[in-house]
Q: What sequence folds into this?
């Protein structure tokens, strides 16, 4: 993989595509797991992020260890280390299907990401500059206009204005092939496309610097026993080596290296 080529594309265009991260067969197996966890949540009426327009499942490794494989990707580790720094972490991870889908337990059509937004951070009425954090997603099915592919506005990662959620902007569509991954600057203006009845499963991850707050407290979500059973790459992504100490009596630095282990 030519890391420098991807980095210059991300800097210039706001995104870059990495081909064949998953095989077609791996995508199909993944989709079976996605549908299964969706059915599980629906049957339990755990539907806070599930709507008739988009079915999002936050941090699916809460429900099935299978999904820990989406926390850390060896293939892009060096790329993310170069884009961010060596202590980069996972900020959030979910599965999203943007499709029209009805189920007696679904109560809303509202989807969190159907309007123009960025996933960057704001200060003083402006968006922080490009390169703060990155969205990494894998298309588990082909993405096109026919199944609500993500829409984006070219070059908006280079400005610091804040998009109007309901603005009518000239935009483009991110067509992707099944099994391909895209890395995009969290400052790029984007939104989920218009859902159709055609399925569009995807893994949506968000990576950032070690000092950025995660969306959720992974250690509390998973419990000590589960966290301790994970390998060091996954633990690192889940902030195990970059959480502040209780006090300076424990230690002074936030970053720790796992004892004797290298990641
Ligand atoms: O589903 C999509 O295409 C967009 C999702 C998104 O923008 C997000 O999760 O922040
Ligand atoms: Fe987003």
A:
């Amino acid at each position: 993989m030519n890391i420098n080529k991807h980095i210059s594309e991300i800097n210039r265009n706001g995104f870059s595509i990495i081909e064949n991260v998953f095989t077609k067969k791996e995508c199909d197996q993944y989709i079976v797991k996605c549908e299964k966890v969706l059915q599980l949540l629906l049957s339990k009426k755990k539907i806070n992020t599930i709507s008739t327009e988009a079915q999002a499942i936050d941090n699916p490794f809460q429900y099935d260890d299978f999904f820990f494989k989406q926390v850390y990707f060896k293939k892009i580790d060096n790329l993310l280390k170069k884009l961010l720094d060596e202590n980069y972490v996972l900020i959030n991870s979910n599965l999203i299907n943007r499709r029209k889908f009805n189920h007696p337990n679904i109560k809303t059509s509202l989807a969190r990401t159907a309007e123009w937004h960025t996933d960057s951070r704001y200060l003083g009425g402006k968006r922080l500059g490009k390169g703060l954090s990155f969205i990494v997603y894998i298309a588990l099915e082909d993405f096109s206009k026919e199944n609500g592919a993500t829409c984006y506005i070219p070059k908006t990662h280079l400005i610091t204005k804040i998009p109007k959620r309901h603005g009518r902007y000239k935009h483009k569509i991110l067509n992707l092939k099944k099994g391909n991954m895209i890395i995009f600057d969290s400052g790029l203006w984007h939104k989920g496309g218009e859902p159709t009845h055609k399925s569009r499963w995807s893994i949506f991850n968000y990576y950032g610097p070690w000092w950025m707050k995660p969306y959720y407290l992974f250690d509390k979500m998973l419990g000590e026993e589960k966290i301790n059973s994970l390998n060091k790459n996954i633990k690192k992504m889940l902030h195990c080596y970059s959480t502040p100490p209780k006090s300076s009596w424990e230690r002074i630095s936030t970053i720790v290296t796992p004892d004797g282990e290298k990641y």
Observations:
- The chain has a mean pLDDT of 96.
- Residues 24-43 form the longest helix (20 residues).
- Residues 96, 98, 113, 119, 150, 190, 192, 204 surround 2-oxoglutaric acid (ligand 1) (CB under 6 Å).
